Amino acid sequence: MALPTDYQLVTGFRYRCLPSCGLCCYTTPAVAPGERDRLIRLDPAAPLLETTVGWAKIASRPEGGACYFLHEERCGCHAARPATCGEFPLTVHVGERVQVSIVLTCPGVDLTPLMGRGTGVPLGPVSSDFRSEMKFVEREVEQAQATGDLRWASQRRRSVERRLGRDGIWQSEEEVRARLRGTLAEMVPEELLHEEPPPEEEPLESLPMFQDPALGRVAWRPHTGGVEFLSLRESGGIARHLGVFASPTRSPGLDAPSRSLLLGYLRYVLERDATIGAAYDHLLEADPALPEEVVAEDLTLIANQVVRLAVLRRALTSDRRGELSVNDLVNGIRATDMDILDRPTVGLRL
Known about the structure:
Number of strands: 13
Number of helices: 9
Order of helices and strands: EEHEEEEHEEHHHEEEEHHHHE
């Protein structure tokens, strides 16, 4: 079953992989049936975790450590790396189509184009900066086509449409977007939503991370005192506790460019099929509501998270106060984006 591939969310962005970053290697990448033999030939001891038939994942080191193949910030299987590694910072979601988006947590992606999204400014073609990553996307889509995963994802999405339709709450992806595009400015927070303390401490391997120019890779987690920042070792475990910072209850305000950036980010998140797929998934288990209501609440929470983490990241490295700048908002987006992309969806993430 051939599904169209949409690269619209990649247009207008520039990208340059930063040396000694390695942020993308703190994961357990999927390995397709045709890829595993290359990895085993490269390293017979490679720890491959079996998943579905023929598929596996490369185990990461315990306690939040990096992928088995990362050694001193360098990939030990670069020539044989799986498509899921080679396509980063691109990410693929399958529902009624194959949609390619960008993981904006990656510090090598220039976020400036977010400010022009939705304003009528031409975004131009997909940059040649992503040429190599797009080839891996094509390979991964071909693999998913061969294994029937594209057909499964499309059929599941249609079954959810039928189920929500029977409940009288179905709205298509484009209908949700059309209803919400004009309301995003209302989601920019002044008073930040209250966060409940975490019921228990999360394991290190599940923590969201970002790359800081001065501190390197930093993980964060909710704490009874606010938010705790810490750095993790490549081999696993905590390298350094960076501090606990009280979570702000009020936004310090955004200057005009940073406000434009936040609105551009909310537009970008709304255009992702994964965002609306997460709302559909929520509705399968929750009380009936319209998808647009679930997505609106989701975007409000995301806007709060971006502003909160922008404030906290600034406190981590600076004593500066006052309105949040564009750079502050960039830091908030980078600390947020990968985590929201990891949420369940009725579609399939390749």
